[in-house]
Amino acid sequence: MIDPDGNQVGVVPTDKALAVATDFGLDLVEVSPNASPPVCKIMDYGRYKYEQTKKTQEAKKKQSTFQVKEIKVRPKTGEHDLQTKVGHIRKFIDKKDKVKVTCMFRGREITLTDQARDLLQRIAEEVEDIALVEQFPKFEGRTMMMILAPR
Question: What is the pTM assigned to this prediction?
Fold first, then answer.
């Protein structure tokens, strides 16, 4: 048994330990049931549960969350449209989100894979000061995609 101050009392029968706990006005909590003999501690169980929930909430607060935003382009996307999309990518990266840049092919555009790869490479170069390429351009079906992550 362990008293409220954290001092070891020793091996005590259960009924006596319960009596000591009620004298303190606290609860007898089994801390380590697998030990031989089991270890019990005299504490305020309600306060203990409250502190545990506070610790988990604090851990959740410090946890960083991010989303994966998607930007779609085509192999023949114009220069101004491309600059607009690069601006959106910069905004997303500043907010600590990952960005999935997808180049879609329609019909006979599927033959322009080299042009699409160059386009994705150019986008990566324009944002390399704030982002790094997490997944290099990869072909999947009729789309080519790449993932950018904040530095």
Answer: 0.59
